[in-house]
Amino acid sequence: AKAAIHLEGSYDNTQPTAQLEWKNGQGQAFAQGGFRLVNNQIIIPQTGLYFVYSQASFRVSCNDGDEEGAGKRLTPLSHRIWRYSDSIGSRASLMSAVRSACQNTAQEDNYGVGQGWYNAIYLGAVFQLKGGD
């Protein structure tokens, strides 16, 4: 089998110190060919080229009736993939994206009051990674 890993994340925003937790073996998540998930980090099985991808899906309410509704259209949402390697000695950003969470017009906001809007950020590229990264 080819080396591959696909994880699903869960996030509990009711916890004050919540962070994304990666899940393996649940839903569509799996790991094969030497990939491991250790302490919420993927361990690369061997040096080579890897297609790294991530999708962050989110739902936001862009208009809740307060006076700052227009400012919410400018709320940034960032999405970043980090790499840690002993050869580097620290973590480094592999790829990132930033977008405004609310991108709809005032008319669309009125249509979607109370429902929120669904959107996603997708990142994907090929990288040379080392075994153990």
Automatic annotation (TrEMBL):
Biological processes annotated in GO: immune response
GO cellular component terms attached to this protein's record: extracellular space; membrane
Membrane topology: Single-pass type II membrane protein
InterPro entries, per database record: TNF, TNF_beta, TNF_dom, Tumour_necrosis_fac-like_dom
Keyword Cell inner membrane: no
CDD domains hit by this protein: TNF
Main location: membrane
Keywords, ordered alphabetically: Cytokine, Disulfide bond, Membrane, Signal, Signal-anchor, Transmembrane, Transmembrane helix
GO molecular function: cytokine activity; tumor necrosis factor receptor binding
Domain THD: 3-133
Location within or outside the cell: Membrane
PANTHER family assigned to the protein according to its UniProt record, in alphabetical order: TUMOR NECROSIS FACTOR (PTHR11471:SF23), TUMOR NECROSIS FACTOR FAMILY MEMBER (PTHR11471)
Subunit details: Homotrimer, and heterotrimer of either two LTB and one LTA subunits or (less prevalent) two LTA and one LTB subunits. Interacts with TNFRSF14.
Function summary: Cytokine that in its homotrimeric form binds to TNFRSF1A/TNFR1, TNFRSF1B/TNFBR and TNFRSF14/HVEM. In its heterotrimeric form with LTB binds to TNFRSF3/LTBR. Lymphotoxin is produced by lymphocytes and is cytotoxic for a wide range of tumor cells in vitro and in vivo.
Family label: Belongs to the tumor necrosis factor family.
Protein name per its UniProtKB record: Lymphotoxin-alpha
Biological source species: Larimichthys crocea
Lineage: Eukaryota, Metazoa, Chordata, Craniata, Vertebrata
